[in-house]
Specification:
Elements (H helix, E strand, L loop, with lengths): L2 E7 L2 E9 L5 H6 L7 E7 H15 L5 E7 L8 H13 L7 E6 L1 H13 L5 E6 L2 H7 L4 E6 L2 E8 L4 E5 L8 H18 L1 H9 L1 H6 L2 H21 L14 H10 L6 H18 L5 H13 L11 H8 L5 E2 L2 E2 L1 E6 L2 E5 L4 H11 L2
Parallel strand pairs: 2-9, 3-4, 3-5, 5-6
Antiparallel strand pairs: 1-2, 7-8, 10-11, 12-13
Helix pairs in contact: 3-4, 5-6, 5-9, 6-7, 6-9, 6-11, 10-11, 10-13, 11-12, 11-14
Amino acid sequence: MAETLTVHRDGQAIYDIILDTSFAGLPEQVKKLGTGERRMCIVTDTTVAGLYLDQVQALLKPCCREICTFVFPAGEASKNLDTVQQLYETLIRAHFDRKDWLAALGGGVVGDLCGYAAATYLRGISFIQIPTTLLSQVDSSIGGKTGVDFASYKNMVGAFHMPALVYTNVSALLTLSKEQYSSGMGEVIKHGLIQDSEYYGWLKANAEAIIRRDPEICLEMIAGSDRIKRQVVEEDPTEQGLRALLNFGHTLGHALEKQLSFSMLHGHCVGLGCLGAVKISVLRGYVPEECLDSLIALMERLHMPVEVTGVSAGRVLEDTKSDKKMDGSRIRFILLRRVGEAFIDRTVTEDEMRAGLRLILR
C-alpha cells in the first residue's frame, strides 16, 4: 500500500515523499540517507512525544550512531526564536556537527521550527520530516519552507531548506482530534481549488469516507494533495512566482489567526480565508455564486467552521498590511479564475476584502 512521490529540482531528484500506513518502513528509508555513523536529534512536542516518540526512537536507533531528543511544549506559542535557541543549545551540548541530522516528528509547528533550526545551525544541516497531522502531511512538510513566528507576526523569520526525506504514516491521522483532522482539510481543499478541479470534485464525492478516515481514501487524498504541491514546488522552489498560489486563503487567514491570538487552528483560518477569497472572485464575476455555496457546503460536511465571531474587520485588514506576502505597498492576493485555476492579483481593494470578511465574520 506504500506509495512514493519524488520531488525534483532542475530535473534532479532531491527527496522522496513516502506514504505508508505505519512507521515500519521508516528505518529502511533513513538508512538510504547514509546516517549510520551520524548523530540524529528527534525534535517533537509534548503531545506527539506521548504518542510516537518511543516508537520512532526505537526504530531509528539502529540507523544512527547516537539518538537524542528535544521536546518542547505543544502549540503555536512555542514556535518562536526562544525555542529555536533552546534547540541550538541542545545540539551544541551534544556536539552536533554539519554532517549530523535532525528529524521533525509532529505537525506543522514541529516541522517548521525543526526545519528552520536545520537551515541555520552551523549554516545548515540535513533533516527529515515525519509529519503526524493531516495539515503537515499535505502541506508544511513538503517544499522546504521553514520558519518561526516573531512577536505576534506569523512566519516572519524563516528560510528555504529542503528535507532529505518526508515519511508520512497515514495511520497517525487516527489519533487526531476531530478539530485537528478537519483543520488539515483547509489545505487539502485549497489545493483542489487552486490547481485541480477533478481532485476538488473527488473530495466532494468522497467526503463521507474522508470523515470516517478510511485508510485507503486518506492515502489517496494525501497523495493527490501532495502531487499538487509537488508540482507547484518543482516549478517554483523559492516562491518567486507560481508558488505564491499556495497562499490562497492565507492573506485573510493569517490575519484572522493573529486577531484570534492563534486560538483557532491554522487550517480552519485558511478555510475561512478561502471563503473570503472565493467571495471576492464571485463579486468580480470570475466564478459563479454556486461555487461559493458548494464550498460552504463541503466545509460544513467536513466539520470545518464557516464563520467566526469576536473579530473586527478593520483590525483584520490592518494586519494584512503586515503580511509577508506584501509586494511593496500592495497585497499579493490570490483569487480564482475558475475552480482549479488561481492567479495572483495586486489590485484587490479594502472594500473587496471587507466584502469577503462580511461573509465569515459574525
